[in-house]
C-alpha cells in the first residue's frame, strides 16, 4: 500500500478537484479496495450541482459511490475476504437493530451507514459494509459491469414496491440512467413498458432497454392523452414510475395511471418542492401513491445476480470510459447536458484497451 493516492474531492457547489490525499488503511473488520472501476451517477451529479447531500456527505469529502475493485488490504478479524479478491462494495449498510430494520425497511435505517470515495485509487470499506454488503465478483465479469449493482439495486427495490405482474403495462417517465434501468428490469420481468422521453436521441435508448412504445414530450400536443392512448383501451397504465424528479412529471404520473393503479415517485425533487394533485381522481380512482428510496442487502443481491447472470445489458449501459484525472471534466460536461452518455466508467489505473 502507498501512503498517498489520487482522489476526486468535492469542496462545494460545482467544485470538484483532483488531489493527493492520504491513502486509507484497514482498521479491524475493514477492507481497503483498489478501485478498478467507478461509475458516474445521477445522485452524484445532483450532489455536485447542490454542493452537498443531507444524508450522505458534506464537503470537503471524497466523492463517488458506485465501484468495484480488488482487495488491497484486509483488516484484523476479517475472515470472508483476502487480498486479491475481486469485490463489489456497496455504498451503505443498515444496522439491523433499529425500528425500521426490524420492520423490514432497512432502506430507512435510523443509522444507515454510507460510504463515499469511489473516484479514487483506493477506498476504505467500513466493517458493517464488509459484513453485510460486500460481494465477490465471479471470474469473467468486468469490473465496470459489477459496479452497476448499486443503482440497479435501487431500481430492483423500486420495481418490487410497484408489485407489477407479467403482462401489466408500465409507463416510465424519464430516460436518464435510472429511467432506462426501470425499463430494462421491468421488461425482463415480463412487463409491457411505455417510455416518456424528453429528447429525440433518447428514443433509441428507451427501445434498446425494453420500451415497446416511446412518446417524446416535445413531439405531441397533449402528453397525457398521447401516453394513455397507448395503454389497453386507453384506461391508463397499471403502474407509472416517475424518474425525472420534477413537479410536472409527478403530476403527469398521476394523470397517466389507471383507476386502481399505482404511481411510484422514484425521482426526488429538492426539499420544499410542492406539487398539485387532483384529490377527486386520487380518491374515487382508488390510486396508490408510493415513493421508493435506496436499496436493501436483499435487493443488492438480486441486482448482483442480474448483472453476473448476463441478463442485464451492462455493456450497452456503459457508454463512456475515462481515466481518473478526467472526473471533474466529466461532471462539468454532465451539467451542460451536452453529454449523451448513459453511464461513464472511470478507471483509476487507466482505461482498458
Question: Please, could you describe this protein's structure?
Answer:
With 353 residues, this protein is an alpha/beta fold. The chain has helices at residues 42-50, 99-102, 127-132, 143-146, 149-162, 177-188, 202-208, 223-228, 247-256, 279-284, 297-309, 314-317, 327-336, and strands spanning 4-12, 15-22, 31-39, 61-62, 67-74, 86-89, 92-93, 113-114, 122-125, 134-136, 169-173, 192-197, 211-216, 237-242, 257-265, 288-290, 318-323, 343-347. Strands 3, 5, 6, 9, 10, 17 and 18 form a 7-stranded mixed beta sheet that branches. A 6-stranded parallel beta sheet has the order 13-12-11-14-15-16, sandwiched between helices. β12 (192-197), α7 and β13 form a beta-alpha-beta unit. α5 crosses α6 and α5 (149-162) crosses α11 (297-309). The longest helix is centred in the middle third of the chain and has 14 residues, at 149-162. It is globular, with a radius of gyration of 20 Å. The protein starts with a strand and ends in a 6-residue tail after the last strand. The model has no long low-confidence stretch (mean pLDDT 94).
Please sum up the structure shown.
This protein has 353 residues and is α/β, with parallel strands linked by helices. It has helices spanning 42-50, 99-102, 127-132, 143-146, 149-162, 177-188, 202-208, 223-228, 247-256, 279-284, 297-309, 314-317, 327-336, and strands spanning 4-12, 15-22, 31-39, 61-62, 67-74, 86-89, 92-93, 113-114, 122-125, 134-136, 169-173, 192-197, 211-216, 237-242, 257-265, 288-290, 318-323, 343-347.
Amino acid at each position: 500500500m502507498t501512503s498517498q493516492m489520487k482522489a476526486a474531492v468535492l469542496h462545494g457547489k460545482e467544485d470538484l478537484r483532483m488531489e493527493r490525499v492520504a491513502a486509507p488503511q484497514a482498521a479491524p473488520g475493514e477492507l481497503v479496495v483498489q478501485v478498478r472501476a467507478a461509475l458516474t451517477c445521477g445522485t452524484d451529479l445532483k450532489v455536485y450541482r447542490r454542493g452537498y447531500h443531507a444524508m450522505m456527505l458534506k464537503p470537503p469529502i471524497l466523492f463517488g459511490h458506485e465501484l468495484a475493485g480488488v482487495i488491497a488490504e484486509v483488516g484484523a478479524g476479517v475472515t470472508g475476504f483476502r487480498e486479491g479478491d475481486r469485490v463489489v462494495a456497496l455504498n451503505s449498510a443498515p444496522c439491523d437493530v433499529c425500528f425500521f430494520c426490524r420492520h423490514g425497511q432497512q432502506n430507512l435505517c435510523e443509522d444507515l451507514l454510507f460510504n463515499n470515495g469511489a473516484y479514487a485509487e483506493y477506498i476504505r470499506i467500513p466493517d458493517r459494509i464488509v459484513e453485510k454488503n460486500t460481494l465477490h465478483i465471479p471470474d469473467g465479469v468486468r469490473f465496470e459491469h459489477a459496479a452497476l449493482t448499486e443503482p440497479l439495486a435501487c431500481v430492483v427495490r423500486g420495481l418490487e414496491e410497484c408489485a407489477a405482474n407479467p403482462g401489466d403495462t408500465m409507463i416510465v417517465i424519464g430516460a436518464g440512467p435510472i429511467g432506462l434501468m426501470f425499463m430494462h428490469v421491468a421488461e425482463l420481468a415480463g412487463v409491457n413498458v411505455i417510455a416518456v422521453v424528453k429528447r429525440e436521441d433518447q428514443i433509441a435508448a428507451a427501445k434498446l432497454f425494453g420500451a415497446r412504445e416511446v412518446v417524446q414530450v416535445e413531439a405531441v400536443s397533449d402528453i397525457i392523452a398521447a401516453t394513455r392512448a397507448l395503454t389497453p383501451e386507453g384506461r391508463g397504465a397499471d403502474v407509472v414510475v416517475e424518474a425525472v424528479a420534477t413537479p410536472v412529471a409527478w403530476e403527469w404520473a398521476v394523470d397517466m395511471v389507471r383507476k386502481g393503479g399505482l404511481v411510484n415517485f422514484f425521482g426526488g425533487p429538492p426539499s420544499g418542492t410542492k406539487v398539485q394533485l387532483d384529490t377527486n381522481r386520487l380518491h374515487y380512482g382508488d390510486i396508490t401513491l408510493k415513493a421508493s428510496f435506496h436499496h436493501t442487502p436483499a435487493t443488492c443481491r438480486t441486482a448482483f445476480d442480474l448483472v453476473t447472470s448476463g441478463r442485464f445489458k451492462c455493456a450497452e449501459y456503459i457508454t463512456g470510459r475515462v481515466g481518473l484525472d478526467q472526473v471533474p471534466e466529466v461532471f462539468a460536461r454532465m451539467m451542460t447536458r451536452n453529454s449523451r452518455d448513459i453511464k461513464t466508467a472511470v478507471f483509476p489505473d487507466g482505461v482498458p484497451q
